[in-house]
UniProtKB/TrEMBL annotation:
GO molecular function per UniProt: hexosyltransferase activity
Assigned keywords, A-Z: Glycosyltransferase, Transferase
Source lineage: Bacteria, Pseudomonadati, Pseudomonadota, Alphaproteobacteria, Hyphomicrobiales
Pfam families: Glyco_tran_WecG
Glycosyltransferase recorded as keyword: yes
Organism encoding this protein: Agrobacterium fabrum
Record-given protein name: Glycosyltransferase
InterPro entries for the chain: WecG_TagA_CpsF
Length: 190
């Protein structure tokens, strides 16, 4: 389980025999993955965001990680009719790590709908607004807020209408998934 939110970590500490050790923000994870991909030759594909944001995110990653290979990139504005060609491009370009940034719940639906067509891709990571951060469109919380697990609060203050609803809807779903995993692992049902 990748805990991108602090609530999941706190909940796991209280209710799971094996707690999640820490929160790993996707905005940090992408950098660790890029460093490793430079060493291994793994290929990234960025799918999502506006054309401007997507292009700027790729350019920023290439600036930071000059040996990082991008197998491709595509903005997130396309029709279902175009989806098949995009999937074919992702697979044909030998993508190792696909980053899907459409926002919740669109990115989860896209991945669920197309998982079987992406069988050659080693890792598929939904990443929400990651491309906006990489492109410099959105800023991260001050470091002290990140360290205290309060980045969600900073973001909610910047975008209360959009993110308040998101946190109210997604946190219960994440907690349900964690409980289901806990009970399945302990043999108590699920």
């Amino acid at each position: 389980i990748h805990a991108d939110g602090m609530s999941l970590v706190i909940f796991s500490r209280k209710f799971c025999p094996k707690a999640l050790r820490e929160r790993v923000a996707t905005t940090d994870l992408v950098h660790a993955a890029a460093k490793r991909a430079e060493e291994t030759g793994s290929r990234f594909y960025f799918l999502g965001g506006s054309e401007e944001v997507n292009r700027a995110a790729v350019e920023e990653m290439q600036r930071l990680y000059p040996r990082l290979v991008f197998s491709g990139r595509r903005n997130g504005y396309f029709s279902r009719a175009e989806e098949e060609a995009i999937l074919a491009d992702i697979v044909a370009s030998r993508t190792d790590i696909l980053w899907v940034g459409f926002g919740i719940p669109l990115e989860q639906r896209f991945v669920s709908r197309n998982l079987d067509r992406l069988s050659g891709v080693a890792v598929i990571k939904t990443c929400g607004g990651l491309f906006d951060f990489l492109a410099g469109k959105n800023s991260r919380a001050p470091q002290w807020m990140q360290d205290m697990g309060l980045e969600w609060l900073y973001r909610a203050m910047l975008e209360p209408k959009r993110l308040g609803k998101r946190y109210l809807l997604t946190n219960p779903i994440a907690i349900y998934s964690l409980l289901k995993h806990r009970f399945a692992a302990s043999g108590q049902g699920g």
